[in-house]
Amino acid sequence: MSLVTPLSPDHDADTKQLAEFFNETLGFCPNSVLTMQHRPAISKAFINLNKAVMANEGRATSALKRMIAWVSSNATGCRYCQAHAIRAAERYGAEQEQLDNIWEYRTHSSFSEGERAALDFSLAASQVPNAVDDEIKQRLYKYWNEGEIVEMLGVISLFGYLNRWNDSMGTPIEDGAVESGEQYLGKNGWNKGKHL
User: Fold this and answer.
1) Which domains does the chain have, with CATH numbers?
2) Which residues have C-beta within 8 Å of that of residue 77, sequence separation ≥ 6?
3) Which candidate, 43, 62, 113, 170, has a CA 20 to 30 Å from the CA of 137?
């Protein structure tokens, strides 16, 4: 059930140029951005925000940021964003063991305590009501500095927007995202859901 039809990648020249960023991230321009093109100011602002949020200025790697996005999307139930986040984590060099065991990040040996703190932060910040508390803060400060925490919350907040956008839109999911979703998330019940 798609609420609004994605437009052609050629619809808006400025969006098309900015969206080249996603060819590296995902291997394709996501249908969510193609839907945003109905109002090009939104698509352009979103891409620029995405680029700023995903820039690495600290020790939070591109792969970790995408795993933070997956935890956030899993918490909200957005299957579209779950698949995109795990695909991007793979493309940005997440360890195979982490990809295969993302559901068990709290206990699997391939995740460091710093990564666990970041992923638990993502889970707590993505819940309604928000569950970030002093314990989460203390764990974060044990491994990360304030700039890195800002980068992480930027990812969580960006995906809060995307989770609502894509689940409300019923954004049609791309083949590459389906492939990654099935490969890494399917064993735990992931499917396309409404994103046909």
Assistant:
1) 13-54 (1.20.5), 62-188 (1.20.1290.10)
2) 163, 167
3) 62
Q: What is the pTM of this model?
A: 0.96
User: CB atoms < 10 A from the CB of 153, how many?
Assistant: 17
Distance CA 48, CA 50 (A): 5
193 φψ region: left (φ > 0), alpha (ψ -120 to 50), beta (else): left
3-class state of residue 1 by DSSP = coil
> φ, ψ for residue 14 (rounded to 5)?
-65, -45
Alpha-carbon distance of 27 to 156, in angstroms, equals 22
